[in-house]
Design goal:
Helix content: 10-25%
CATH topology of the largest domain: Neuraminidase
Strand content: 35-45%
Oligomer: single chain
Number of strands: 32
Structural class: mainly beta
Number of domains: 2
Strand order of the largest sheet: 1-32-31-30
């Protein structure tokens, strides 16, 4: 007797498809739009600081003419429908490759970088040794004749527990990395030598540890040099650097993510064998590294900002080309996702999280000229949590499909008898 196929067998076969549709909700992309009002001038590698009043200070970088600029703007996110940019007092020195810091004592300090001067009729790049302070109360810069001991480009700044400003890393205009560390004492307006790294760390990252010390991670001895996997820890009491726990692989040009006071992730960058998508997590309590969730794609030298939910990375490069993708790192889930395509790729844009769930990307470059555009990225809405973990969903789908096929084969065999 010929029997019809049971309807419930067909239903079993549709379950994997339904579950796949449920899991697909987690890959929703964010939205990207161009702001109606661009920057008044192109700015590539400008530095930014969110002020206490919610406005964003933007200064320096490479301008339209291909040289460092001293242009300074305030961006007001409350005026996006009008003209949100106000040009204020320009810096005393054009600066590119500089760094900003807003210490607890107040104001915003611009330190380091280089400018382009005309010397004997020729345009020449020179490092900037002086520092200057922006006063948000009157929107002006004050220049201090407190010259750095070793002027540097591409440096990082960190505030010590007693309010001093520590200048870390960087390189000179020949591209050679700088190993010396120096600190600026705000009260006396003087620079003091403060130890020396065992190895220069161009493209490395620095992170403040919960005990008040500082960890230097990766980098290379010069621009485009061979990356290292080594780390060093700065003893703030003795002003000395000591060997730290080595990473699993060398890297330079990576991004740094702080999960909490004890755990930090480095991701991407160059390894010496090309650009990588790998990531590693450092546990301060264990003083050890372990593999972490890899990035969606290899990326180097991406710009980074963060809010309470996500870390955002954009504007990096891969094998010499500017990458137009936006990568999100979910802080709670410790997972990466590929979450949007910029309207145009931007190398070294200035990323700022001005308001919750909105990231502004100012300027940048296609590798040859500075942009004045501003792109606004809105991350995807948090997907509703599935009733089981996504890995479990895929496993259920596979098992259900196999069971369904076995049952179908069984009834087909009986049907043919």
């Amino acid at each position: 007797m010929r029997r019809p196929w049971p309807v419930w067998v067909i239903m079993l076969l549709t379950i994997p498809l339904v579950l796949s549709m449920v899991s697909a909700d987690d890959d929703t992309l964010g939205s990207i739009e161009d702001l109606s009002y661009p920057l008044p001038v192109g700015m590539w590698g400008a530095r930014s600081m969110v002020l206490d009043n919610g406005q964003v200070l933007l200064c320096g970088g490479i301008s339209d003419d291909g040289h460092p600029t001293n242009a300074t703007f305030l961006f007001d996110p409350e005026k996006e429908e009008e003209d949100p940019f106000e040009r204020v007092d320009d810096m005393h020195h054009p600066r590119a490759g500089h760094a900003l810091i807003m210490p607890t004592s107040g104001g915003v300090y611009a330190i380091g970088g280089y400018e382009n001067r005309t010397i004997d009729g020729n345009r020449t790049d020179v490092t900037v040794a002086n520092i200057e302070r922006f006063d948000p109360a009157n929107n002006t810069w004050v220049l201090f004749n407190a010259s750095m001991i070793t002027p540097r480009v591409g440096l990082e700044l960190m505030e010590t527990s007693n309010g001093e400003i520590l200048a870390l890393g960087g390189y000179d205009l020949t591209g050679m990395g700088i190993k010396t560390t120096e600190k600026y004492v705000i009260s006396s307006k003087l620079w003091i030598s403060s130890g020396e790294l065992a190895q220069a760390r161009v493209g490395g990252v620095f992170v403040g540890l919960p005990d008040g010390n500082i960890m230097a991670i990766g980098g290379s001895d010069k621009v485009d040099g061979m990356p290292t996997a080594s780390t060093e820890v700065y003893d703030r009491t003795l002003s000395t650097w000591n060997t730290g726990a080595e990473m699993g692989r060398p890297r330079a040009g990576c991004v740094l993510i702080t999960l909490d006071e004890e755990r930090y992730i480095v991701a991407g960058g160059k390894t010496g064998k090309g650009v990588t998508d790998t990531a590693e997590m450092f546990d301060h309590k264990e003083s050890s590294w372990s593999d972490a969730d890899p990035m969606p794609a290899p990326i180097c030298c991406g710009s980074l900002t963060a809010d309470e939910r996500f870390v955002y990375v954009a504007g990096g490069t891969f094998n010499g080309s500017v990458d137009a993708r936006v990568f999100l790192f979910d802080i709670e889930k410790k997972k990466w996702r590929d979450s949007g395509i910029l309207t145009h790729g931007q190398e070294d844009p200035t990323l700022v999280t001005v308001t919750k769930n909105r990231v502004h990307m100012f300027g940048g470059s296609d590798g040859t000229k500075a942009f004045n555009g501003v792109q606004v990225y809105t991350p995807p809405n948090e997907p509703s949590e599935p009733f089981v973990d996504l890995d479990q969903i895929f496993m259920i789908a596979i098992v259900t499909g196999i069971v369904g096929l076995l049952m179908l084969a069984f009834f087909l065999r009986r049907h043919d008898k």
